[in-house]
Amino acid sequence: MKTNKVTGLVIGRRSLPNQDRIIVFFSQELGKIILLAKNIKKITSKRLPHAQTGNYLKVVFSERHNYFYLHDTELVSAYSQIKKDLIKLNQLYLVFFVLDRILPERQPEILSFNLTCKLLKQLSQKQLAEKDLADYFSQLLMDLGYLQEKSNYYEIIAKIEEIITEKIPAFII
After folding, report:
1. CA-CA distance, 34 to 44, in Å (whole number)?
2. pLDDT in tens, 141-161
3. pLDDT digits (tens, 9 = 90+) for 75-129
4. Which parts of 46-149 are beta strand (E)?
5. What is the model's pTM?
6. φ, ψ for residue 135, nearest 5 deg
7. How far apart are CA 70 and CA 38, in angstroms?
8. In the 8-state DSSP scheme, what is residue 139?
């Protein structure tokens, strides 16, 4: 059983009926991966506070039977300046919603990861204008091969909804 150690972003999570949770993790080295965090909801779990959406973490995990199992986490940044402001938080969730739906699993996306980290640094400092989000999503879609040239915000959102074949929830936009 090989142990891996990578740094990246928690872009989503889902609860399972027992003490487990699925964590959607985006790293530069591996791209988007799904981590199974066994017993993370136990009151004594040291991993639980780290596994929040939007946190930048160092994680240790292993692969067994084609699944990734989370072992340990270390918080690098919680992006607390973003999480204190409701508008910034909505912008963060919009970005992560799109990343979760659009990124392929287990495929390194170095340009997309670096672009997202740059956006999060911007978002930590100030709320983003529609133009900033349009530029980010345009570049993301161009890097992933879905778009040829930059577009405005509403055209980009329509293109994303077409690609992921679902509407972006209204409370996020």
Report:
1. 23
2. 999 999 999 999 999 999 999
3. 999 999 999 999 999 999 999 999 999 999 999 999 999 999 999 999 999 999 9
4. 56-64, 67-77
5. 0.91
6. -65, -45
7. 7
8. H
CA gap 146, 80 in Å, rounded? 32
First to last CA, the chain: 42
Which position has the token pair 């293109």? 159
**Which ranges in the chain are annotated with CATH 2.40.50.140?**
3-77
**DSSP secondary-structure letter at 65?**
T
Describe the chain by its helix, strand, coil percentages, rounded to 5.
35, 30, 35
Cα-based angle 52, 157, 150 (whole degrees, multiple of 5) = 110
CB-count burial class (<10 Å; 0-12, 13-18, 19+) for 7: middle
Tokens of 156: 């980009």
Instruction: Name residue 63's amino acid.
Output: E
At a CB cut-off of 8 Å and minimum separation 6, what does 161 contact? 167, 168
User: 3-77: what fold?
Assistant: OB fold (Dihydrolipoamide Acetyltransferase, E2P) (2.40.50)
